[in-house]
Design goal:
This protein has 10 helices and 7 strands. Strand 4, helix 5 and strand 5 form a beta-alpha-beta unit. It is globular and about 50 Å long. The chain has one domain: Rossmann fold. It has a 7-stranded mixed β-sheet, sandwiched between helices. By secondary structure, it is of the alpha/beta class. Helix 5 packs across helix 7 and helix 8 crosses helix 10.
Length: 245
């Protein structure tokens, strides 16, 4: 199942995700004519970076959140090279022809079943098509988890922070080869004035989504007050692979 997002807030606050996305986009091997799926495009900030690499290509910008796609639709209203799609990556994908590459940033950790995810992606790729992705990996936001646990809450389900080894095995089982997976620490300072909004929108969404406005504000403020500094201890899981030929 996908979650709905506050796309307007995400658009304003997602500078860290955009910065990481630029690095991931640069890992794609492109000649500029390809058809690329942006799997988890959000509001389209990283999609715009991808378009710069595709002067003669096209992008299918896919997200499970209709609010995110609506925000992306504003950004790409006059861009015929972008097709916007609302779809769940845990379900089989239906595209009119195989695609050359898949890009994904800051998305896969929101999906619990990575085995099905990778099978679904492989099914729409041409042989030797590229998969280049980054998401939260093992150890991601562990200090926030400890704070939340100390408050009597848990993140619960809805996320997968996988290891590089687990991910390699799942990719191989899904029909990928030339696989490289690795983790890197990415401690990320957040401006103090944006910290609570950032955590509410991004880090704590799975917990606070069902809270009332007052309860949510109190909870987020309490978590922020327990942080020793306004830094999120992100760990990124990086993936490069090709669909087997």
């Amino acid at each position: 199942m996908t979650r709905e997002w506050d796309a307007t807030a995400y658009e304003r606050l997602s500078a860290p995700q955009t910065r990481w996305g630029r690095v991931v986009v640069d890992r794609l091997e492109l000649d500029g004519h390809e058809r690329v799926l942006d799997a988890g495009c959000g509001t389209g900030r990283v999609t715009s970076l991808l378009l710069e690499r595709l002067p003669h290509g096209r992008v299918i910008a896919l997200d499970g959140s209709s609010a995110m796609i609506a925000e992306a639709g504003v950004r790409f209203a006059d861009e015929p090279r972008v097709e916007l799609v609302v779809a769940d990556l845990t379900e089989p994908l239906s595209l009119d022809e195989p695609i050359d590459a898949i890009l994904s940033t800051a998305t896969f950790h929101w999906i619990t079943d990575h085995a099905s995810l990778f099978r679904n992606l492989a099914s729409v790729m041409r042989p030797r098509g590229q998969l280049v992705a980054q998401c939260g990996g093992a150890g991601n936001i562990s200090s926030l988890e400890r704070i939340i646990s100390g408050m009597g809450h848990t993140f619960g389900g809805g996320k997968t922070f996988a290891t590089a080894e687990e991910t390699r095995a799942r990719l191989e089982a899904a029909g990928f080869e030339d696989i490289d997976t690795w983790l890197n620490d990415e401690p990320t300072p957040i401006p103090q004035e944006d910290l609570e909004a950032f955590m509410e929108t991004v880090c704590l969404g799975g917990i606070v989504d069902d809270m009332g406005a007052d309860e949510r504000a109190h909870f987020v403020h309490e978590v922020a007050s327990r942080m020793p500094e306004p830094v999120i201890d992100y760990v990124r899981l990086n993936i490069t692979a090709r669909r087997a030929g």
